């Protein structure tokens, strides 16, 4: 008998086809997000789940799903999953690292360039008929080339962001929980500095750290005051790493030049203070949103799940202790 699984959101046909070869699949192709109660009911008799960052997998849900053996997240981040609770119940948890690194790095650069050159503001002005001709001092932006780039988080995506900086001949600073190997620093032409020094020196500050209690409001009012008034902040990682209310106040007061944001606290709820600001570029959490990357993410999650339910070890297992149980 095939194991029973739930796919909580719409996925690609090839993903469903692969899963159906190995599992009895229930899929939410209508793509309506489940509330916690509905998710628990749908999972009550399931052996596995392919879920997304919008699905909260916690101890309360796991108590109602005694047959669940694996949670396969279509995301590299997994703050939507209580890993400790999964491990305690012998439930494997997986994610999809690697396949989205370059696409997410590209989006960070898109935010950096768009904010520096005021592209979304200027597009609105063009559409509104405000462009009446060329003038020397009209709508001036700032250069990215030869500037100083500061990266918080030098994991795979942070490294991909740093590699792209070479083409702009930028000075690269970084801060990480642990300093990376000297050989990698040389390849990236990156210099390790303290959090405070990065904020003081960087013209562009890019955040690429996972969200956790330790990184909650990593950037708040005090940190923003350390930045140059000409600096730009880019958050392409997770909402909650930045104190959005503090950022809005700083942008209004000219504490920093601008911000490019792909993620927000309480998303998709958006602090309305952002909407009246011209010096912020807003994107709807699309860091990995290219067709090729999203297809790869979905298939990676499917492969993780099938491996876990057929006696193998999922390639991207987050809690090996759970498999031992």
How would you sum up this structure, described in words?
This protein is α/β, with parallel strands linked by helices. The chain folds into 2 domains: 4-99 and 291-324, NAD(P)-binding Rossmann-like Domain (Rossmann fold); 101-282, NAD(P)-binding Rossmann-like Domain (Rossmann fold), CATH 3.40.50.720. The chain has helices at 13-22, 36-43, 59-63, 83-88, 101-116, 119-127, 156-165, 182-188, 195-201, 221-226, 244-253, 291-309, 320-324; strands at residues 4-7, 24-27, 48-51, 70-73, 92-94, 148-152, 171-175, 190-192, 204-207, 232-235, 258-261, 280-282. The strands form 2 sheets. Strands 8-7-6-9-10-11-12 form a 7-stranded parallel β-sheet, with helices on both faces. Helix 4 links the parallel strand 4 and strand 5 (92-94). The model has no long low-confidence stretch (mean pLDDT 97).
């Amino acid at each position: 008998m095939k194991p029973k699984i739930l796919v909580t959101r719409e996925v690609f046909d090839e993903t469903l086809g692969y899963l159906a070869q190995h599992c009895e699949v229930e899929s939410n192709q209508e793509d309506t997000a489940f509330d916690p109660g509905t998710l628990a009911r749908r999972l009550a008799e399931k052996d596995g789940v392919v879920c997304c960052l919008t699905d909260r997998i916690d101890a309360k849900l796991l108590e109602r799903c005694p047959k669940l053996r694996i949670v396969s997240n279509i995301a590299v981040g997994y703050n939507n999953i209580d890993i400790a609770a999964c491990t305690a119940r012998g439930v494997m948890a997986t994610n999809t690292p690697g396949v989205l690194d370059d696409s997410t790095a590209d989006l960070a650069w898109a935010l950096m360039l768009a904010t520096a050159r005021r592209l979304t503001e200027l597009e609105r002005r063009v559409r509104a008929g405000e462009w009446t001709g060329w003038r020397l001092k009209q709508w001036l932006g700032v250069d990215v080339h030869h500037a100083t780039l500061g990266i918080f988080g030098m994991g795979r995506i942070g490294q991909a962001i740093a590699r792209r900086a070479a083409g702009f001949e930028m000075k690269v600073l970084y801060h990480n929980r642990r300093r990376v190997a000297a050989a990698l620093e040389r390849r990236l032409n990156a210099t390790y500095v303290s959090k405070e020094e990065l904020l003081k020196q960087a013209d562009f500050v890019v955040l690429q750290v996972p969200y956790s209690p330790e990184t909650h409001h990593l950037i708040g009012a005090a940190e923003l005051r350390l930045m140059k008034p000409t600096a730009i902040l880019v958050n392409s990682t997770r909402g909650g790493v930045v104190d959005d209310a503090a950022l809005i106040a700083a942008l209004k007061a000219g504490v920093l030049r601008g911000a490019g944001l792909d993620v927000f606290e309480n998303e998709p709820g958006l602090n309305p203070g952002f909407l009246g600001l011209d010096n912020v570029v807003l994107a709807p959490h699309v860091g990995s949103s290219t067709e090729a990357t999203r297809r790869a993410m979905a298939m990676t999650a499917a492969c993780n799940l099938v491996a876990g339910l057929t006696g193998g070890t999922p390639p991207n297992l987050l809690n090996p202790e759970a498999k031992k149980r």
